[in-house]
Amino acid sequence: MKNLLSYDHGTSDTPLLGITISEQLKQTVDKYPQKEALVVPYQSYRATYKEFWEQVEEVAKGILSYGVKKGERVGIWSPNRYEWVLVQFATARLGVILVNVNPAYKAAELKYALKQSEISLLIMSKGFRQTNYSDILGEVRAECIHLKHIVVIDHDWQTLIEAGKSINTERLEAIEAGLQFDDAINIQYTSGTTGFPKGSTLSHHNILNNGYFIGQRLKYTADDRVCIPVPLYHCFGMVLANLACITHGACMVLTGEAFVPEAVLKTVQDEKCTSLYGVPLMFIAELNDPSFDKYDYSSLRTGIMAGASCPESTMKAVREKMNMREVGICYGMTETSPVSTQTFVDDNDYRRCATVGKVHPHIEIKIIDPETDGIVARGERGEFCTRGYSVMLKYWNNPEATASVIDDGRWMHTGDLAVMDDDGYVQIVGRIKDLIIRGGENISPFEIEEFLHQHEAIKDIQVIGVPSDKYGEEVMAWIVLKEGSTVTSEELHAYCKGQIATFKIPKYWKFVSEFPTTVTGKVRKVEMREISAKELELEVRH
Ligand code: AMP
User: Fold this and answer.
1) Are 496 and 97 in contact (CB under 8 A)?
2) What digits encode the pLDDT tens for the residues 281-309?
3) Which of 437, 438, 443, 471 for mutating ligand 1's site (highest number of atoms within 8 Å of CB)?
4) Atom 10 in ligand 1: which residue has the minimum CA distance?
5) How many Å apart are CA 328 and CA 337, to the nearest integer?
């Protein structure tokens, strides 16, 4: 008899990996020493697993030479480059907690991350796009008292490697031998639903296993070559890609510091990639790029589309036009390592396009009525919850926030609305959390509201997401000005520039005298969204 409640559990013949990331990498290196591990064409970089292991060791020793100890936080602030990947595995070998800093961060956000996780060593690029990282760091450094060392990859990389030469291998191996797979190894800041960004604190066990089972569902082998245009600072890059690769002996292929559709298409062809990743927006841009017909996609077999709702038409197009006949969808969130459900490569078209698949091995999921916490019947909508090895250890230094999302039964409440069918396939149908997802980047309205509240002309502000064909959602701010104050949207835009990441700066500004509220005085963001969506639609039509 079928289970009538929206609860499912991923049974599996494959046991969880009960080892650290370092031990897993070593096993893969021993098994496939001559297979390519990492290829970064735009840096003319390629390394076999054996070479990769040796370089990871050099970087680990370099980090050790700065006196960083197990459990301390090392930040990486850089767009995608091979050094990022080396630092990911070097810190894992040392038991040092890697803090991923978003490459788009500006002064206010950087300061927050450095202080909140008390980063002692920051490894950073010299900049990204037009942004000079040293200038930004200069603005905030004095306030970050824990920050002792800075390594600018473009200038100091060799110095780091040289410094590591004084460290002997036995010392590194002794540290590795003392690590446990439940140790925290990574902090990823998420926008969360309220308050400032929260540092999802993840263990070896969390992310290594998640990467492993993602790769298993995609049927990865050591012959797979995964094309990675998604950012490494996000779990889509460092877990779904990097950890899925190293657990199966597959090759990681990076495509550029920033996303350029043609560079991705060319890399797929030149590096004979078998798998391609992206948020829906990236696939749409690739399919519509004028260069699309120039390249050969015959090497592709599979890939992942995730991060936001995946349009069925885009899924169909990548299967038919890019030869990604086994493409899948993943659903998850950073706090759950991230993936909870995934489609299978042999699912039928409907399931592979319109659902986010079924529960992952060893994980439990349920869909509940958020008011009562009761599990809803199959086919009914409710809040998606996850339990199991994948649920983060905690939000870094934030027990209240942790307790607000992980309940006494150890279920992580995602804030996403979902429906489960009789066969356990899940559809994501909305969100109850106050979050904007713009082209795959999560944005907390609260964070922008807090920042703009500091502006002297603003009395009150509410930030919402409005529909956008290009990005799925765009950021809009509704503003109530203080009496007698005037300010233009251009001035507010300039006020945000350089302080908060460009993707968070509202595209639309609406000046109002009050917000729509409920009888109890709660702001009705749903109504604001409806009003603004209608107004914007009218604007487009006229
Ligand atoms: P992040 O923590 O950045 O990975 O973002 C997690 C959030 O992205 C989830 O809570 C969902 O709201 C959204 N999300 C991720 N994957 C999907 C998907 N396949 N379909 C719809 N929404 C998704």
Assistant:
1) no
2) 899 999 999 999 999 999 999 999 998 88
3) 437
4) 333
5) 18
- Among 137-146, 386-395, 515-524, whose mean pLDDT is lowest? 515-524
Q: How far apart are CA 287 and CA 191, in angstroms?
A: 30
- Asked whether the beta carbons of 275 and 224 are under 8 A apart, the reply is yes
3 state SS for 59-70: HHHHHHCCCCCC
Q: Are 218 and 302 in contact (CB under 8 A)?
A: yes
User: CB count, 10 Å around CB of 213?
Assistant: 26
Q: What is the predicted pLDDT for the residue at 2? A: 56
Q: Which atom, in ligand 1's list, is nearest to the CA of 356?
A: 19
**Which residue, 224, 215, 320, is CA-closest to 272?**
224
Cα four-point dihedral sign 40, 253, 151, 441: positive
Q: Which pLDDT belongs to residue 333?
A: 95
Pocket of ligand 1 (CB under 6 A): 190, 235, 306-310, 329, 331, 333-334, 338, 356, 414, 416, 428, 431, 437, 442
Find the 307 Cα to ligand 1 centroid distance in Å. 5
**308 alpha carbon to ligand 1 midpoint, in Å?**
5
Exposure string over 388-401, b if 16+ CB within 10 A, otherwise e = bbbbbbbbbebeeb
Q: Let me know if 294 is exposed, middle or buried by CB neighbors in 10 A (0-12, 13-18, 19+).
A: exposed
- Please give the Cα distance from 468 to 308 (Å, whole number): 13
